[in-house]
Specification:
The protein is α+β, with helices and mostly antiparallel strands and 190 residues long. 24% of the residues lie in helices and 23% in strands. The protein contains five helices and eight strands. The strands form three sheets. A three-stranded antiparallel beta sheet has the order 4-3-5. The longest helix has 13 residues.
């Protein structure tokens, strides 16, 4: 599917993948969560349905469970993939019932008006970061906060730190790797 003669992309910046053909989904009923300016609901988010979300959606006035043969709609069940409206997903997210998103099949459509969160990775260890009176050093500040904010990203908190995983005495060097920080990740997810 194209917009202005360009292939539509997913949120990873790649060509969008099929969300589901059984049941057939998408604004165009072609299996894709493609964007169309005539789609007032913006059915661009490919999700894995679960019973909690389906019941929630029905309680909000959008019954996705009951089959509607007149529209060739079989009704959805737990595990089905379906293109849902942006506003319904945001509402479900705020109510703690958002279904899982399939990124490869979710449209990148740039007017989603959803903030992009910048996950921070410190070039120092967690211990050095906690003991520092300045927080992030100048290179982290530049690369993790200043430059991304030019792109409109919202800065969060560190979610990874560079830790020493081994020392190579023969090379006189330390081998480092980024390690996920569960405290930061939990803070961001809330």
């Amino acid at each position: 599917m194209t917009i202005n003669n360009q292939n539509q992309l997913n949120v990873l910046g790649e060509e969008i993948e099929i969300c589901s053909c059984a049941p057939m989904t998408g604004w165009f009923r072609d299996g894709y969560c493609n964007y169309d300016k005539n789609d007032g609901g913006n059915h661009s988010i490919c999700c894995v349905m679960d019973d909690n979300f389906l019941k929630y959606s029905k309680s909000q006035g959008n019954d996705l469970i009951t089959p509607m043969p007149i529209y060739s709609f079989p009704g959805l069940k737990d595990g089905d993939h379906w293109c849902i409206c942006l506003d319904r997903w945001k509402q479900a997210l705020l109510d703690g019932l958002a279904p899982k998103v399939i990124l490869e099949s979710t449209n990148i459509f740039t007017s989603l008006k959803i903030p992009i969160l910048q996950l921070l990775s410190s070039n120092r260890s967690r211990k050095k970061w906690l003991n520092s009176s300045i927080g992030m050093n100048s290179s982290d500040l530049l690369m993790q906060i200043i430059i991304p904010e030019f792109d409109g990203r919202i800065t969060t908190c560190p979610s990874a730190f560079k830790e020493i995983i081994s020392k190579k005495n023969t090379l006189y060097s330390e081998i480092t790797s980024y390690k996920a920080d569960q405290v930061g990740i939990q803070w961001i997810s809330k």
